[in-house]
Design brief:
Elements lengths: L3 E7 L3 H4 L1 H6 L3 H10 L4 E7 L9 H5 L3 E5 L9 H13 L2 E5 L6 H7 L6 E13 L13 E11 L9 E8 L4 E10 L2 E6 L12 H14 L39
Parallel strand pairs: 1-2, 1-3, 3-4, 4-9
Antiparallel strand pairs: 5-6, 5-7, 7-8, 8-9
The protein binds zinc ion.
């Protein structure tokens, strides 16, 4: 079986600008994830906001099966033309895993069509994640619940579409709850939003977290890539109706053009 081509994208600003964060993630969050996820069936590539084209050239996007996204303070600096290309590729089949503060990224708001707003609090509180979909491939080898000793609180209401499948519900020490693991399908692409991963805590070294993200990468692997279009199509069976109406059909393209 061919390896899954995984691109891990990180904003990579906190780790370079804040020495305390750099101590936790000396190689960046993307570097830590790459080490933690490394496996024979994965071909992992790293990309960051300040790389040329954010590390997401046309060639990289075209050769990515699954894209992991971590961003926080610089969502607005992500180029709209690149977001557009990622969105198109998701619709064509690319998997997308959005982590933590990526809830407010341009790409997550684009694929959900929602504001993705939520409540938050930085108080190093304990998070307990309840696995409410124990048969789902993303929760494989995860028990009924597990805990993260210290995490930023994300609380409801989380403004996301209601067609998502909820895999994890979190309870925080301070009393809030949150839909912390949710899947969506858009076009031919599979999307997983996973809440843990505030940069001030070593969350991406925790075994359960890596297990879940690794499971999600395999789950989100494309079945195929197929361009989105609206083709005019011949009839399978003989049509006996007589068409006396004027034919006004035009070919419409996914980029909004028509001819
Ligand atoms: Zn955070």
């Amino acid at each position: 079986m061919q390896k899954i081509r995984l691109t891990i994208w990180n904003e990579f600003r906190h780790e370079r600008e804040n020495p305390e964060i750099a101590k936790i993630y000396p190689e960046g969050i993307h570097g830590a994830l790459a080490r933690g996820l490394a496996a024979d069936d994965l071909e992992i590539r790293l990309a960051a906001l300040d790389d040329p084209d954010h590390g997401l050239s046309d060639e990289v996007i075209a050769s990515t099966d699954v894209l992991i996204w971590w961003g926080h303070c610089a969502h607005g600096e992500v180029r709209d033309d690149i977001v557009e290309k990622i969105h198109t590729r998701v619709l064509e089949g690319m998997g997308l895993i959005v982590l933590h503060s990526g809830h407010f990224s341009k790409i997550f708001r684009r694929v959900t069509g929602c504001s993705c707003s939520l409540k938050w609090r930085e108080a190093a509180e304990r998070e307990r994640l309840w696995n409410i979909a124990p048969c789902h491939p993303i929760t494989r080898e995860i028990g009924e619940y597990f805990e993260i000793p210290h995490e930023e609180m994300y609380g409801e209401r989380f403004d996301i579409p209601t067609d998502g499948e909820i895999l994890f519900i979190s309870h925080f020490e301070g009393g809030n709850v949150f839909r912390s693991g949710v899947t969506f399908e858009r076009g031919y692409g599979k999307i997983f939003y996973f809440q843990p991963g505030h940069e001030s805590y070593p969350v991406y070294y925790q075994q359960e977290i890596l297990q879940i993200i690794g499971n999600a990468v395999r789950w989100a692997r494309p079945v195929f890539f197929r361009q989105m279009s609206a083709p005019q199509t011949p009839a399978l069976d003989k049509i006996t109706s007589v068409n006396t109406a004027p034919v006004t059909g035009i070919l419409q393209n996914i980029d909004g053009t028509a001819k």
